[in-house]
């Protein structure tokens, strides 16, 4: 049932791509929006959904380098391989000629503008719609606002001060005289979610039958909580996360290991994920993300012919030691894949021996894939790993058919916990109850009187390798010492990536911008 529901939205996206190639092109080239609008019959209000699906399609179609630029800082992960710009960024040395930061900016803004294009098209359809059509249009516009917010939030986390597009008209940028600060961007996103929430569906994403996995009221509440967490407005965090918790609609997927694999697609824990599918077929159309950068550079897969990865994204030895010292099992096995060189590094730098290490600390995963020693990395990310025995026969690309989780309920619970520890109040549950739900799944004993330090450690254990969450937490909480490790030195002025030179050339106002 989950699999059938999972593949419906990507199938709609493929059909859309076949039927409305012109729409896709115009979303990529917003300066031509007027030409596109002139060729659309807005009286056919049943076509309104295609404008929304186009936004979903563009927001989910992330290039391989973009999540890495967002994610590859912090003491949970190291950049590996031959991408020097990414390796420099990981060490807080920001290269304004790095192609990754250029494409992050350009593609994110292209898709943000595309979301505005979709909103404007929906508004045109609504001029011809009946009362029900207008209500549906308001819902679709609210969904597009949420999708736009996902990208703008990440852009501001990476760069700090960024532009806030208000429409699809690029002329709005011709005479820009200031760049909103990160705080201003976060407040804007919080306000946008307040606008969107009344029009969004009151259900889990996986309960939707029109667009399974599409955003709902709770996705928007989660983004509102994230934005206010960055603002350190902890009461607003508690209010938003408390609504999600009190809804009773969400629960943690019981098997942490499978959460990030095929069985975990669109689970009751998911508040939003980028959806990809091979449609159950070994050949033909597919909608996918390139997961190779996360994969081991050398392996012997259980399924012959399954492709290896590029070895660009390596869990840190610091994180592995932290997890071993906590006695973590399911979360460490899920988060980290081990080579023998990695195991030897653990033994040579800790009191663990080959005999005392947990059995899962092995170069062979529980699914039978064997990681080989290589020059690029000693560990690989398990959260971006799809076992070769879960590949659909005929599909050999690393991670093919795997979704990319963006927001999940565990984060809601731990944001809620932190907000209470930071002085907020809410009656949805206690801080202990919220954190212990997460710990229970991990097989850990419950905490009583949880402290902020314990909560910070819990988030480290739970969210390593996920969208740079550890790095952004440490910056927000000013725990800079955690980010100064293995030869790195972090200071507050290194919180934001340098704008690419192309962006400075196009927008000279970016020179000298500070938050």
TrEMBL record:
Family named by the database record: Belongs to the SusD family.
InterPro entries in UniProt: SusD-like_N (IPR033985), SusD_RagB_dom (IPR012944), TPR-like_helical_dom_sf (IPR011990)
Residues annotated as domain SusD-like N-terminal: 69-200
Pfam families (alphabetical): SusD-like_3 (PF14322), SusD_RagB (PF07980)
tRNA-binding is among the record's keywords: no
Gene3D superfamilies referenced in this protein's UniProt entry, alphabetically: 1.25.40.390
Key words, A-Z: Cell outer membrane, Membrane, Signal
Name by which UniProt lists this protein: RagB/SusD family nutrient uptake outer membrane protein
Organism the protein comes from: Gillisia hiemivivida
SUPFAM superfamilies on file: TPR-like
Residues spanning the signal sequence: 1-26
Main localization category: membrane
